[in-house]
Amino acid sequence: METPIMSVPLSPQSAARLAAHDQGHLLRCLSGAGPGYAESLESLDPALLASLFKGEGLASPPDLTSLEPPPVVPAGADAAARAAGEKALRAGQVAVVLVAGGQGTRLGSDQPKGCFPVGPVSGATLYQIHAGKVLALGRKYGNTPVFLIMTSAATDAATRDFFREHGHFGLNPEDVWFFRQGEMPAVDRQTGRILLEEPGKLFTAPDGHGGCLAALSRQGWLDKLAARGVSDLFYFQVDNPLVAIGDPVFIGRHVLAGSQATSKVIYRRDASEKLGVFALSRGRCHIVEYSDLPGDMGTATTAGGTLLFGAGNPAIHLFSVRFLARAAAGDSLMPYHAAFKKVPFWSVETGHVRPETENAVKFEKFMFDVLPHAEPWLLVETPRDDEFAPLKNARDADSPEEVRAAQSRLAARWLAKAGIRVPVDAAGHPAAPLEISPLAALESADLDASRLNRNDWSVPLFLGPDGYWKESR
Ligand code: UTP
To answer: For ligand 1, atom 3, which residue shows the shortest CA distance?
Structure first.
């Protein structure tokens, strides 16, 4: 092994630790690298990466022979739960956390995904829609929930700037708490050696949405929430504009059951749908990747013809803050998942390389791995079309067009409940785009039918915050 030039401040202990774990190549570009490089090497945990590369400590599915379909509370009205949820919202017991650290590679935008315009008429961005719901909760229940936003190195600066430029969308900036998740290096798939993005710069990626737990706890956010009297945290992902943030019935069910973790469930369309499924194993709630379900289990149906393991995960959860603090104390219980990815890299031998095939392993934690540690826990069904339309891809499935159409259809269903039928096309979908601002209605019952007396419903329409209709802008 070549002797590193030690003219930059890397401690001999760190250098020895790296060399001992076959990461000596990182020391070869120390000379000439900025001080940030030595710092990034100091904070590496080569022993952890070595064991993850060997497959130790990686997530493994629960014993498949023990899996049973879990109990799910069906969707529907529940007056007692609504009253309990509204009480918690009025008392400021619920905060909201949005995970927005992902790189959005499939969508391919150079901005964080939250900055992407998805409002079918207004062109509102995902961040604006989510922030509008938080603001509307405050107006409706007289107490604006604290809004935590998890960013990553990839999204942090652009997200903070975006909120600042837009006046935090009307929220009090002091009640919008940004925090940054951790990063994980990627390693070469063949050798386990840490990849460099360029000379003197490690290739790192956000450590997965499960990095939320450690970031919330280590940076003191859970303590701050508890000090403010927040007992529960509503968790959701940036890509889904339909999430009923702070849904009072969902909150109430969680509160009345004394649940530590309550999750929404949507039913899978068919056995091939790429969605994690909820499964019961020895009394605990797990999420099993659809690809880990053995063929017959993934396709088995009930006597009624529905999928036996049909309860899919739309990534909408409510966690008790105390439960998260306890889970974070045992954070090593949250395993990493490994994924093969194409990672452009640089090395002394090859220079810059843009690989054609998956050359690297990335390690990520998933938030749902906290669920088996919750007791009691609860699953609650939500109609898929009402609450799940994630923006994932630039075209085809889960594309901006699909996400906009899903919002128009939901607006049409809310209007139908208020007694208004809008013109539809041959497929039964609204003939023109429709959009209801969260500041006009958070749920269909908030629509004031007496104000919806329009003659022409066949043009794009936006129900704005002032409670009256505007034509498309
Ligand atoms: P996805 O797994 O869909 O990833 O994230 P993505 O970054 O949005 O898109 P691709 O896979 O690169 O195309 C689901 C949710 O988890 C968040 C994302 O921001 C999104 O809200 N997430 C993902 C994080 O907050 N941090 C991560 O490290 C990964």
So the answer is: 392
Q: What is the spatial distance between Cα 265 and Cα 14, in angstroms, rounded to a whole number? A: 46
pLDDT for the residue numbered 200? 93
* Cα(167)–Cα(178) distance, integer angstroms: 15
Is residue 103 lining ligand 1, measured as CB closer than 6 Å? Answer: yes
Q: Closest ligand 1 atom, CA of 237?
A: 21
CA nearest to 467, candidates 432, 441, 434, 443: 441
Range(s) within the chain of domains with CATH label 3.90.550.10: 64-387
Task: Specify the ligand 1 atom closest to the Cα of 106.
Answer: 13
Fold entry, domain 64-387 = Spore Coat Polysaccharide Biosynthesis Protein SpsA; Chain A (3.90.550)
How far, in Å, from the CA of 264 to the mean position of ligand 1? Answer: 19
Q: Is the CB of 112 under 6 A from ligand 1?
A: no
Confidence of residue 471 (pLDDT cuts 50, 70, 90): low
Mutate to test the pocket of ligand 1, among 238, 364, 396 (most ligand atoms within 8 A of CB): 238
* Mean predicted confidence (pLDDT) in 63-88: 95
Query: Going by C-beta distance under 8 Å and a sequence separation of 6 or more, which residues neighbour residue 44?
Result: 14, 18, 23, 185, 194, 202
d(CA 472, CA 120): 10
